[in-house]
Specification:
Shape: globular
CATH superfamily of the largest domain: 2-enoyl-CoA Hydratase, Chain A, domain 1
Oligomer: single chain
CATH topology of the largest domain: 2-enoyl-CoA Hydratase, Chain A, domain 1
Distance between the termini: 45 Å
Number of domains: 2
Structural class: alpha+beta
Radius of gyration: 23 Å
CATH class of the largest domain: Alpha Beta
Number of strands: 22
Length: 480
């Protein structure tokens, strides 16, 4: 794989974060029968008829209509979307955290699929696959040259079907084949560990259906091991968001009862709401409070929240709430800046519309749309500085993104120029050394520089703050 493709791969991985959304589920199924513009509808019908009768080959009517709906919604903003049968199924899988596969969290390294972590209890875990293993072949297909999405697609499939993987284990300098039977996997969106006596790390990688329950279980394990916890790092780096109720619940775990977590405002009445740290605002109808078993000490334990450019949506809600209430110190890099809420409205048993219905605001009334959460302490990715930060896309870089509610925007030509310069520099260095671009250390590892600085802050030690990072301010737009 050439240097250019390697760098492009890292950019793609960084851009994934902004593509996911904060959801209000379940959707209420409300429909609006607004008056239709007659002349424009007649034009639409005329075009439909011409395509049907005059196009070079027959076209499927249902596909034409679905494409028309998709085009209409795509013109609104980067996050509204029409779900056809296939994409709606994929969306539901992503929000529930369930899928059929082998059970591994993956990344890319030198064009190969790298196992970041086997999911506990999964077929891959039982087969003995380890963190750091590289997948070189999936069935009869070489992995080198595949994108990460293509590799995932080949490893997923129907329950009880087999997939053959060829594994290269660097620690043993050997390759070996392994056959795994696919089954339904429940993704682990929460990881945690006691790093040293008195100090713990808890990472939320996405806000899914089971995230709050997993979050509570991990905290109970931490307090069982360390009943007198002195400090906690809540790691939300590269967390793309997910379910709004999850963000409210996790914020509520650390805040006093009845504290405002987030408010939303949009065109319709049900998009105007204030969400507080009360069970009514984060439990499902008829369900019990998932936070009821957490120790009272959690409300006052010293905290740092780690964020970066990949922290978006629901993770920004949590960081903003804890920052505004001065409950935690936010450290890292300025976040993605996705300050909008999407609602999913089902159109048929197999199709749905995901549509932006509101902007959200932090407890102090801040809209972070196209701006993000600015950390209290800015950190670099490594002790040597930032490697991939300039390459990562943010909300303000997306076409048709919503402006900040105050008429501010963060579209910055200088940022685009900096991204291209950073890309060119990495490509040149990779071409010169002929070595693969070294990925950042795994979050939570001993080499994780921002995490080390977060613990230094909790212990009152010196923190190596960024010497180059500055706040990206939103700029007022003017009409042309």
């Amino acid at each position: 794989m050439g240097a250019k493709l390697k760098v492009a791969g890292w950019v793609a991985l960084g851009a994934v974060a902004g593509a996911l959304t904060t959801m209000q589920l379940p959707a209420n199924g409300r429909t609006s029968l607004a008056p239709l513009p007659l002349e424009e509808m007649q034009q639409l019908a005329a075009v439909f008829g011409m395509v049907k009768s005059d196009y070079v080959e027959p076209v499927d009517e249902k596909k034409l209509i679905n494409d028309a709906i998709a085009g209409m919604v795509a013109g609104l903003d980067p996050h509204s979307q029409f779900f056809d049968k296939k994409s709606f199924k994929e969306f539901r899988e992503s929000s529930t955290g369930k899928f059929v596969g082998v059970g591994i969290e993956i990344g890319m390294e030198d064009g190969l699929v790298k196992i970041v972590s086997p999911i506990e209890g999964s077929p891959a875990f039982r087969a003995g696959l380890k963190s750091g293993d590289l997948i070189t072949k999936i069935d009869d297909t070489m992995v080198k040259g595949l994108g990460i999405d293509q590799a995932v697609k080949r490893m997923r499939g129907e329950p009880n079907t087999k997939v053959s993987l060829t594994i290269f284990r660097k620690s043993e300098s050997r390759s070996f084949p392994i056959t795994i039977v696919r089954e339904e996997i429940r993704q682990q969106s929460v990881r945690a560990k006691v790093v040293e006596p008195g100090y713990a790390w808890l990472r939320v990688s996405q806000f899914q259906d089971r995230t709050v329950d997993d979050f509570v279980r991990k905290l109970e394990e931490i307090y069982k091991q360390e009943p007198k916890l002195k400090g906690l790092v809540l790691d939300l780096r590269n967390d793309p968001g997910g379910l709004l109720e999850g963000a409210v619940a996790i914020s509520a775990a650390f805040l006093p009862a009845d504290t405002v977590v987030v408010s939303t405002n949009g065109q319709v009445a049900d998009s105007k709401a204030v969400f507080k740290a009360t069970p009514d605002n984060y439990t499902r109808r008829g369900g019990s409070d998932p936070l009821r078993k957490l120790p009272a000490a959690l409300k006052s334990v010293p905290m740092v929240v780690l964020v970066n450019e990949g922290s978006a949506s629901a993770s920004e809600i949590v960081a903003g709430a804890l920052q505004d209430h001065k409950r935690a110190i936010v450290m890292g890099a300025q976040t993605f800046g996705k300050g909008s809420v999407q609602t999913v409205r089902q159109l048929s048993p197999e199709t749905a519309l995901k549509i932006t219905t509101a902007r959200y605001y932090t407890p102090n009334g801040r809209s972070i749309q196209a701006k993000g959460i600015v950390p209290d302490v800015l950190l670099d990715e490594t002790a040597e500085g930032n490697v991939f930060a300039a390459l990562r896309m943010r909300e303000a870089d997306l076409e048709k993104h919503l402006q900040n509610a105050k008429g501010e925007d963060d579209k910055d030509p200088a940022r685009e120029k900096a991204r291209e310069e950073a890309r060119a520099k990495l490509e040149a260095e990779a071409a010169k050394t002929k070595e693969p671009i070294k990925p950042l250390p795994e979050f939570g590892s001993a080499e994780d520089f921002p995490l080390t600085q977060a613990f230094n802050r909790l212990k009152g030690k010196t923190v190596l703050v960024s010497k180059t990072a500055v706040e990206r301010k939103a700029e007022a737009t003017t009409e042309q």
